[in-house]
Amino acid sequence: MMKGKLERKRSGPPHLVPLSRQAVSILRELYFLTGPTGYVFPSRKAGVPISDGTINAALRTLGYSEQEMTGHGFRATARTLVRERLGCDKEIVERHLAHGSDEEWGNAYDRAQFIEQRTKMAQEWADYLDRLAIGLVDGASIDAARRAPSLVATISDEGTSESISI
Question: Do you know which InterPro entries this protein is assigned to (predicted)?
Fold first, then answer.
C-alpha cells in the first residue's frame, strides 16, 4: 500500500535523499556514462527511468525467484535492518522512504524532513553494507556469527523464566 497518492508524489514537494559517501563515489564513477542530466538508470524509452520490472528481470537472471527477492523487497530489507541492526528511529526511516506520518494529522501539519538524522542514517547503512561485504557482522566475522546461537527463547514455568539458545 502506498503512503500517499501517486499524483501527490509526482506534483508535490521534492523528496530529498541524503547520500552516503559510498553512494556519491558510485555516482561519480557513473558520471561518464550518464552525463550531467537525465536518469542514472534510464529505460530504453527516452525520458523515463528503468521500471521495477527491469530490476526484477535482472534478479531472475541472477537466479533469484520471485519468492526470494523483488526490487521492492530491497526497501523492506533495508527498512528492517536499519531498524534492527542500526537502531534508527522509525519516524526517520519512514521519512527516508518517502512515507508520510502515521499520526492522525501528521501529513497535514508535520513537514519535518530530518535531513541531518537521515544523512547520518544513510552513512551508517552504507558502512554496515561495507562491513557485510568484507565478512563482518556487528563486529564479528560471518563465520563466527553463523556459529553463534540463532534463537533465544524465554520459557516461563509458573512464574519463573529460563533463557535457552537453540
Answer: DNA_brk_join_enz (IPR011010), Integrase-like_cat_sf (IPR013762), Integrase_catalytic (IPR002104), Phage_Integrase (IPR050808)
Residue 142: inside a domain: no
Domain that holds residue 60: 16-134
Q: How many domains in the chain? A: 1
124 within a domain of the structure (yes/no) = yes
Q: Strand 152-157 relative to strand 140-141: parallel, antiparallel, unpaired?
A: unpaired
In this predicted model, what pLDDT tens digit does every residue of 31-56 receive, in sequence order? 988 888 888 888 988 888 999 999 99
Residue showing cell 531472475: 60
What are the backbone angles phi and psi of residue 117, rounded to the nearest 5°?
-65, -40
CB 120 within 8 A of CB 87: no
Q: Is residue 121 predicted with pLDDT exceeding 70?
A: yes
Phi, psi of 155, rounded to the nearest 5 degrees: -105, 125
How far from 144 is each of 25, 132, 150, CA to CA, in Å?
A: 31, 13, 12
67 within domain boundaries? yes
DSSP state of 62: T
